[in-house]
Design goal:
The protein has about 250 residues and is α/β, with parallel strands linked by helices. The protein folds into two domains: about 1-170, HUPs (Rossmann fold), CATH 3.40.50.620; about 185-245, Pantoate-beta-alanine ligase, C-terminal domain (Pantoate--beta-alanine Ligase, Chain: A,domain 2, 2-Layer Sandwich), CATH 3.30.1300.10. It has helices at about 5-15, 35-45, 65-70, 75-80, 95, 115-120, 120-135, 150-160, 190-195, 200-205, 210-220, and strands at about 1-5, 20-25, 50-55, 85-90, 140-145, 165-170, 225-230, 235-240, 245-250. Strand 5, helix 8 (about 150-160) and strand 6 form a beta-alpha-beta unit. The radius of gyration is 18 Å and the shape is globular. Bound molecules: pantoate. Pantoate binds near residues 148 and 151.
């Protein structure tokens, strides 16, 4: 795998790949089987696959959450190499924000709901960095997990509104055997919290209504930000200690 850390190096390289289809898997690292399933799909559907690892400071609404976000570039590079990803774009924070984050992408409808209401500024930071990554990498297609469902909707909306020449693909959420959606943040759960966390997807998928699920989660020791039915889905965000988990399931 070719690791590119400088924007100018990627731009020079990109010119040599003009005849290739490129699949892009953007990540914040600490990679797991969910990310690898996106890479596997990209490899099937494109000549070349590019992953990025960038823990984007502007999408964290709390400094401690940014500091404590799990990181392990060495293990990530080994995993991406084993999965035959062709390129890794691994920029440093100051390279991505030469403007000091004075230029931003905002959306003022979907971004105000659910996650947006609980994490002010999160979606502006996320959309801004995704636009930068798409502009830099110029992929044919990009791959996003459905676990971050609101993020996926917003990226699709941005791509459509700004006429970006990229196809956005949604990939089904990967789950552990007990149903917990795979997430880099799961690594921070204690063994007891990890056992408890499985109640979250179990209740989301149950026949209970949103208010009943909320009450049940609270009685089990979760802090509940929301359980809400929207976009033919049931979406939820909860915390165990300082670890926040989000998930969603299809509602028919
Ligand atoms: O879903 C993520 O990991 C991030 O929000 C993304 C899309 C890589 C942007 O930083």
């Amino acid at each position: 795998m070719n690791i590119v850390t400088k924007i100018s190096d990627w731009q020079a390289l990109r010119k040599t790949l003009a005849n290739k289809t490129i699949g892009f898997v953007p990540t914040m690292g600490y990679l797991h089987a969910g990310h690898m399933s996106l890479c596997a799909r990209s490899r099937q559907e494109n000549d070349l696959t590019v992953a990025s690892i960038f823990v984007n400071p502007t999408q964290f609404n709390q400094a401690e959450d940014f500091q404590s976000y799990p990181r392990n570039n060495e293990a990530d590079i080994a995993l991406l190499t084993a999965h035959q990803v062709d390129y890794l774009f691994l920029p440093e924070a100051d390279m991505m924000y030469p403007d000091g984050y004075e230029v931003r992408v905002t959306e003022d409808q979907v971004s105000q709901l659910l996650e947006g209401a609980h994490r002010p500024g999160h979606f502006t930071g996320m959309l801004t960095v995704v636009l930068k990554l798409l502009n830099l990498l110029q992929p044919t297609q990009a791959y996003f997990g459905e676990k971050d469902y609101q993020q996926l909707l917003l990226i699709r909306k941005m791509v459509s509104a700004l006429f970006l020449p990229v196809k956005i693909n949604a990939c089904e959420t990967m789950r552990a055997a007990d149903g917990l959606a795979l997430s880099s943040r799961n690594a921070r759960l204690t063994p007891a919290q990890r056992l408890q966390a499985a109640h979250f997807p179990r209740l989301l998928q149950s026949e209970l209504n949103a208010a009943q699920i909320t009450a049940e989660l609270i009685s089990l020791g979760f802090k509940v930000d929301y359980i809400m039915d929207q976009w033919q889905r049931r979406l939820g965000a909860v915390s165990l200690g300082d670890i926040r988990l989000i998930d969603n399931v299809v509602r028919v």
